[in-house]
């Protein structure tokens, strides 16, 4: 890896300094701080300083059980060769329910592999990377509405930035595809409302028409207590492949996009009726596909499910509610890891983390 790993003893004094940002992140083009916390305790003062740093912070260690202190949660990502150690491991379904929990990762490729991947992403997309982790830190203390507003403001700011502009100039092109004029199939059968994404030709990409139809259907469920169950599925090979790339950058300005995003939020409406919503995932669940699903009260996944958050690689942050919904299920540290790395998560890991509730 090209990024230096600092022993915690080396940075602790700097964290207590009013010049911590300048001392610990001297190169603004690489806003990344990697710290070896093996056998160390992070105190409250250092934790406050870590959360204030305009940088991605990664804690690494040989054995997570040897790193202690509530302040350890202040880091954005925690990686250890051996995460065993009771609560520090954070494994199992529902582990992310406690937003203050400490979730260590033990990737197959080892600590160095994870740090190298994060280093590469931070170097190529420093603005989006820092915006993502700072947003996740902030959202821990917000309710759904405020969290979605904070996410949208961050997303809109990045829409006006150079990293997203570069992605727009180099984005993959897709020819015109004939799609069904009905983007969402809606069927009510007694007490159940069944919703089906109906754009299989484009892997149910989440475009404006799909969003508006989904919001309208969810508003119906919110208004009618006689609807006891809302079941959301998708036609074709994928549940939802994320935002429709053809529509990115088509709104007139970021401010208008923010107003639309916060007044037509499918994530908000799923959250409103979450206890009645059951989502059935299959195939690709990218971006909005998993961000929206994570709001639901119950999520099942087929064995072929693959989860991914690609937005930082586009110069953005998750924009369909993922910075609110995912941390509630898998915690901030794992959410930051997925957001920064863009790693594809298989169904069995999504289940182990609590991102989905059962495999179908």
Features:
39% helix; single chain; alpha/beta; 13 helices; 360 residues; 6-stranded mixed beta sheet; 4-stranded parallel beta sheet
Helix and strand layout, with pairings?
Layout: E1 5-7, H1 8-15, H2 20-24, E2 32-36, H3 44-52, E3 56-63, E4 77-82, H4 111-124, H5 126-139, H6 144-159, H7 162-170, E5 184-189, E6 192-197, H8 208-223, E7 229-234, H9 254-263, H10 266-272, E8 277-281, E9 284-286, H11 288-291, E10 298-301, E11 306-308, H12 322-341, E12 345-346, H13 347-353, E13 358-359
Parallel strand pairs: 1-2, 2-3, 3-4, 6-7, 7-8, 8-10, 9-11, 10-13
Antiparallel strand pairs: 5-6, 11-12
Helix pairs in contact: 4-5, 5-6, 5-12, 6-9, 8-10
Outline the structure in words.
- The relative contact order is 0.13.
- The chain has a 6-stranded mixed sheet with strand order 5-6-7-8-10-13, covered by helices on one side. It has a 4-stranded parallel sheet with strand order 1-2-3-4.
- With 360 residues, it is an alpha/beta fold.
- α5 runs antiparallel to α12 and α6 packs antiparallel against α9.
- It has 13 helices and 13 strands.
- Helix content is 39%, strand content 16%.
- The longest helix is centred in the last third of the chain and has 20 residues.
- About 3% of the residues have low confidence.
